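ARCHIVE CARD
CATEGORY: sequence design from structure
SOURCE FIELD: tokenized fold
FIELD CONTENT:
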């Protein structure tokens, strides 16, 4: 079921206390269109025995429930029981980078089997003693290898800028995209809350700037300068312009609720979330028939706050915002949840 032309999903990392089959059933019953499936020890562990059989079973469950899927790789302790979200593609130890790349390869193969709309990942945070130049080189090498696997499998990658990581904003994503030759399969996961947290543009403007690369959208409420995923209504965000921007851009991928700290009340939170999104989506004005999507310029070439490169932009390049950007936050957002 769609609302206002948009398709809504929910992240299974917000159902960590449920069996995956039960989570899919609940979400389908609530009217969701898809799921963002985090590969983790409790939900389709990519390292447990019998993976192929389990993937086929999940595929049947998804088809039975009528749910689309994006595969995510952001499990907290899947690779290391002591270090959250590590190792990564920018880790100092070569064996750590190899382990992260192997996870991405497995995720891509799982995504291909499930018919996933994309496979999601992020950069990670450089280790102490690692220079930004070293971290960027490692990231570019790792992404190039993941892209080669994705190309063979026929799967799109959806890279997410993540607050506090090497690539935390749209400018950093654009730098990485250029380094990878603008590869068509290197697409973008835009977390709308992250736009509120640290981007210099209003959230709806971020949608316009990212529209040409979008493969997946994550959504939740958030406050300026604080990286904490909040249920709708508990942050500062104004959602009608955001959903209107997505619809005006003719975005057809999943808009997935991302509330990884709310598994204790998963079903109730998912119910309130879909009710909010449907109500909001049905109240925004529909675009006129035949109207084309507004084409936002590429994300500004200004320096990324955590490792962007290159010079600034000028108005005659057509890359400045059409309205005054929101005030820039402190250099490092307060980290509450990850």
């Amino acid at each position: 079921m769609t609302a206002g032309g948009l398709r809504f999903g929910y992240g299974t990392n917000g159902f960590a206390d449920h069996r995956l089959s039960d989570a899919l059933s609940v979400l389908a019953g609530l009217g969701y269109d898809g799921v963002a499936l985090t590969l983790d020890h409790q939900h389709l562990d990519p390292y447990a025995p019998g993976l192929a059989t389990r993937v086929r079973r999940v595929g049947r469950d998804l088809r039975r429930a009528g749910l689309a899927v994006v595969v995510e790789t952001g499990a907290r302790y899947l690779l290391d029981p002591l270090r959250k979200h590590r190792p990564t593609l920018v880790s100092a130890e070569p064996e750590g980078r190899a382990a992260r790349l192997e996870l991405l390869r497995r995720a891509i193969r799982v995504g291909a089997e499930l018919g996933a709309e994309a496979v999601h990942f992020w950069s990670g945070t450089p280790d102490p003693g690692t220079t930004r130049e070293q971290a960027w080189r490692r990231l570019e090498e790792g992404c190039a290898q993941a892209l080669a696997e994705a190309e063979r499998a026929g799967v799109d990658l959806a890279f997410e800028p993540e607050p506090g990581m090497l690539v935390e904003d749209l400018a950093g994503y654009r730098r990485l995209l250029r380094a990878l030759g603008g590869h068509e399969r290197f697409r973008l996961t835009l977390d709308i809350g992250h736009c509120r947290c640290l981007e210099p543009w209003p959230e709806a403007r971020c949608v316009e700037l990212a529209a040409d690369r979008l493969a997946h959208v994550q959504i939740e409420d958030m406050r300026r300068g604080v990286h904490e995923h909040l249920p709708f209504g508990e942050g500062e965000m104004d959602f009608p312009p955001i959903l209107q921007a997505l619809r005006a851009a003719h975005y057809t991928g999943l808009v997935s609720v991302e509330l990884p700290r709310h598994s204790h009340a998963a079903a109730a939170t998912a119910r309130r979330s879909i009710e909010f999104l449907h109500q909001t989506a049905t109240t925004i004005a529909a675009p006129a028939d035949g109207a084309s999507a507004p084409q936002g310029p590429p994300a500004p070439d200004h320096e990324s706050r955590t490792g962007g490169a290159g010079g600034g932009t000028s108005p005659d390049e057509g890359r400045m915002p059409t309205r005054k950007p929101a005030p820039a936050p402190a250099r490092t957002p307060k980290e509450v949840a990850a």
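CARD ANNOTATION: The longest strand covers residues 186-191. The two ends are 30 Å apart (CA to CA).
SHELF: design records, drawer C
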